[in-house]
Amino acid sequence: MKIQQLNDCLAEVNQALSDFLPEQDDPMREVMAYSLANGGKRVRPFLTLAFCELCGGKRETALPFAAAVEYVHTYSLIHDDLPCMDDDDMRRGQPSSHIRFGEANALLGGDALLTRAFGILVSAELPPSLLVRAVDALSLYAGTEGMIGGQVLDLAGEGQKQTVSDLKKTDAGKTAALIKCACVLGCIAADASWEQIEAAENFADNLGIAFQIQDDILDVTSDSATLGKPVGSDEKNEKSTYVSLLGLDGARKEEQRYTENALRSLDIFGQEADVLRRFASGLSNRLS
Prior knowledge:
- The protein has helices at residues 6-19, 29-36, 43-54, 59-81, 97-101, 103-121, 128-142, 147-156, 164-174, 176-189, 194-221, 224-227, 233-236, 242-264, 274-284; strands spanning 90-91, 94-95.
- By secondary structure, the protein is mostly helical.
- It has one domain (3-284): Farnesyl Diphosphate Synthase.
- The mean pLDDT is 92.
């Protein structure tokens, strides 16, 4: 995938997210569409499509995989904002789903997105053996061994004294797992080699931690208008962060170290991975 194709890629993702919504008269469609349409960087679907092409597959073949992983990510954000979790009223500059539709409808909207994701996943025009691998990957990385498990550790850590090692264990699940899922799904769509999949996993592991460290940095250096969500929520929830444990300069150095590790993981792909290198570097320097 070339740099100039990035905007086209994101436009395809946004169209697919809309196309896979239920019918207009579905009672959950509005709730689902509201959160899906509420911006976002589309990091995960981009990674799915990019790794598919990088491993020799066709981008359009992986589009259902890309949409499915973004449906799961969006459901997780709806639930993350609920009063029983982070209790955030704003998401990407707009009222959170539970503020817009009420807590019960937001909860059900998240459930609907998660459930529909697996139907979208298996709609891909790929051999059944690859679809089975994709279902296994999404259920693994989104479940208790991945994103949900990380969220459990995150909640348990509120008000507790934690170490950097504790944070990395949490973030390997809460943040990195779904990023890893996105990369692996792209590889599966291309029927990639195990060497390619291993490189994608290493890339995602490091990118996910770097992404979370940058989130912690922005929580203390940015403002609500720029981020599109409240700042200082980690302090409010009495959470240990990379900034609170390492200091701002230390957190920045750690973020850079993980980004560099992610970039090195792409060496086996040569220059063909340049778009992913630029993408990862852009996430490292993001302001929101």
